Amino acid sequence: MKRMFAYLIVGAMVLGVVTGWGLNHFLTADQASAAASNLNLITDIFLRLIKMIIAPLVFTTLVAGIAHMEDAASVGRIGVKTMTWFIGASIVSLVLGLVMVQLLQPGANMHLPEAVAAAAPAASTDAFSLHGFIAHLVPTSIFDAMARNEILQIVVFSVFVGTAVAALDDKAPAVLHLVEQAASIMLKVTEFVMKLAPFAIFAALASTIATQGLEMLGTYAKFVLGFYGSMGVLWGLLFLAGAVVLGKRVIPLFREIRTPTLLAFSTASSEAAYPRILEALPKVGVRRRIVSFVLPLGYSFNLDGSMLYCTFGTMFIMQAHGVHLSVSQQIFMLLLLMVTSKGIAGIPRASLVVIMATLTYFGLPEAWIAIVLGVDHLLDMGRSATNVVGNSVAAAVVAKWEGELDDMPEADSADGQAQPAAV
């Protein structure tokens, strides 16, 4: 089924290119523009569906993950070490994406219609002061925050609720079970929505090529290759960081996570690889109590590939529309993405919502996200695999810092005493 979906995506991309070329080649400019407008309706519906599911999905998965914590002392100690790694990895990923997109300039030569370029508004941070940003983190009403898809506020509320549940002696089993069931339902809804992705991808590509011609594919090629090159650099940095902490253990670690990484790549979902990571990490000595703590948090707080894409994709969109940010504005963007990226669930295309929120924050049309929708699935495959690598390295590093990285089970005697049960 996953392979069939991948074929549908590829087929939608090819059909979108062919249809867009036909509209651009055989219709007048006005007719092609009208056809593109009609196709955009499909894309708009898909984007609205994404926005519909993201708030309840972030809330339920984040509350459920935080609620499954153990005693406060160990959770606090491990939590500080985990968040230290997450924050460091986040900064590296975001800055790397910003640096690489500035060096490569993949959107600089994307020639949009003059009318669109002329209408591009200047980026603004008038409403983005430090005081306003910090105050904006705290919701006055969770229902209002969800209605407006304020991801930052939803994350803050979810952290409070999850921590409160974890602090209760009985962990409020009825409430926790309800949240877990709601999370399962939302993941199933997400699965339904993503079945429409081929239609949206077809419409996005056909609409773009109908108005711009095939010349834009050269820019997309540079965009895709530049992004995968940037991810290659990030993989190298993760390997080096892991080698510094883990030593030679980093080699078997990367060898063990090959299967979940390939699964995430082929399905474009790091969520699909979650069970395989839980199975793989203990094989390199990472105790299950560390894995069960770090991974759920990592799926909301440490999606390295998605964060790299947030800066790379946002700046590509701005470059394509001739919008330039000052150094201070880029710093503001990094700060914004540093927080908003923590609400990304490990599901396909969730980072699109964060990019849309960033564009809106700078006073730019969120509809500009459609420019990357046609190749987003191809990019999502790479960033999902990167998310798996980043979280696997994080779990092993935290285990090493906690002194809970056992000897390799393969190197021990047959009784397997070197891998105690998680308690």
From TrEMBL:
TM segment ranges: 45-64, 85-104, 151-168, 189-211, 223-246, 323-340, 352-375
4Fe-4S among keywords: no
Pfam family, one: SDF
SUPFAM superfamilies cross-referenced by the UniProt entry: Proton glutamate symport protein (SSF118215)
Protein name, per record: Dicarboxylate/amino acid:cation symporter
Superkingdom field: Bacteria
InterPro entries: Na-dicarboxylate_symporter, Na:dicarbo_symporter_sf
Alphabetical UniProt keywords: Cell membrane, Membrane, Transmembrane, Transmembrane helix, Transport
Membrane topology: Multi-pass membrane protein
PANTHER family from the UniProt entry: PROTON/GLUTAMATE-ASPARTATE SYMPORTER, PROTON_GLUTAMATE-ASPARTATE SYMPORTER
Subcellular location(s) of the protein: Cell membrane
